[in-house]
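Workshop exercise sheet. Pairs work together: one partner reads the sequence aloud, the other fills in the structure field after running the prediction. Swap roles for the next sheet.
Pair: D.N. / O.F.
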Amino acid sequence: MRIIVAMKQLPDLVEELEVDSNGTDVDREFVKFVPNEWDEQALEEALLIKESTGAEVVVVGLDDPDMDQTLYTAIAKGADRIVKINGTGAAEAWLTTRDRAAVLANWLAHEPFDLVMTGVQSADDLDGQLAGVLAAMLGLPHASVVVRAEVKDGFVAVAQELGGGVTVEEEIRLPAVIGMQTARQTPRYAPITRVRQAMQAGGLEEVAAGVPTAGLPSGMSVRRLFPPEKSGQAEMLSGDAEAVADRIVGILRERGLIKV
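Structure field:
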């Protein structure tokens, strides 16, 4: 059995992000990129399935910034094979969910697999529909917002979280595509020494994107990004406790928050 895990890179939201000159993306020159946290959940669940069934885990990513590090980390965690798809434009600009799905569907058309797993969403997408769109392009069944996946007898048994905290369990015939919300356990940690060993051993396969599979038209596009507006600045209060307390009361009165 072969499981494909699709991963992507995102700008690190901990850092200060600037809008680029075109106004449609963040300035990528000085931004650190990190793995999408939901894709890491998908990888962890795939590794748990591997440990229980002996499945082969293949991790694939587009040529996002710093993707090599993430792929070698996947090997250090227990993945069997890593693939990077080049020539997608992901290193220079943001790609829509459907563009990503088209590139992955084109590559998967030439790859044998039983199950495709990806994160249910990412912080920079507009719809959280990668699993669904990819499944539609491949003509396969899918489930999203999955919190548990176990493979048995030609099916994947999933626990899918619905609205209101309701969870439904169902079986989906393989091959299939699922979008993971959370794995059964916290994603494992790979020591940096093991990641470096994986890098030294090599083994990263690089393939050309080719002509994307004709799929669904893009449902959304980014017209303009704006940084958060600054509404004011903090007022530093000084003096003894009584003076500071009086100033706080004064501010609350000025803004109509208290009437005393």
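Discussion prompt: The helical segments are 37-53, 67-77, 97-108, 130-138, 192-201, 241-254. What would you look at next?
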